[in-house]
Amino acid sequence: MKIDLQITARNFEITELIREQIREKVEKLDSFYSDIMRCRVVVEVPHRHKHKGILYDIHIYMTVPGGEIVIKREPNEDIYVAIRDAFDAARRQLEDYSRKQRGDVKQREEIPYARISAMFSDKGYGFLTTSDGREIYFHENSVLNSDFKRLKVGTEVHFAEEQGEKGPQASTVRVAGK
């Protein structure tokens, strides 16, 4: 483990067993994301409630290339549960951070839109003209929300395109704004 680790306890004395468990959890984080430069874990007992007992609060501050990841979880009466929950959250955030760095985050694709260019209502189909000038066939069964009878030439729609037997066709057509 090459991580600079600092463990701090506030308002109570931390045992060597707890320190060892935190070290193991940090080593596990290092296996998920090996570029952690520094990790500071603060174990604190914020208030001693007479009715709730002792609550343990775990904060994790990790320095990574390009930023810092901070984990603050709800306090728990069981210190081991509080540590587990905090490190589970840290692992999830590190995985997300790693995905973003690799560029694996899915980008939302623009939903293509078009205008109705021809309608053959009596035959149950029509044609769309896309923004780049392509003409795409659609059938009345591909129009969502039973809107086929309300479609007119010039209506803006969103669509999903697929390759049909005779060329491109819209598998789904939805009136824009709905």
Descriptive tags:
five-stranded mixed beta barrel; OB fold (Dihydrolipoamide Acetyltransferase, E2P); Double Stranded RNA Binding Domain; alpha+beta
Q: Under CATH, the topology of the largest domain is which?
A: Double Stranded RNA Binding Domain
Biggest sheet: strands side by side, in what order?
7-8-9-11-10
Give the integer mean of the pLDDT values: 86
Q: Main beta sheet: strand number and arrangement?
A: 5 strands, mixed, barrel
Uncertain runs are none
Distance separating the two termini: 54 Å
> DSSP helix count?
2
Summed up, the domain count is: 2
- Sheet-strand content, in percent, reads 35-45%
Q: Could you tell me the radius of gyration in angstroms?
A: 28 Å
How would you spell out the order of helices and strands?
EHEEEEEHEEEEE
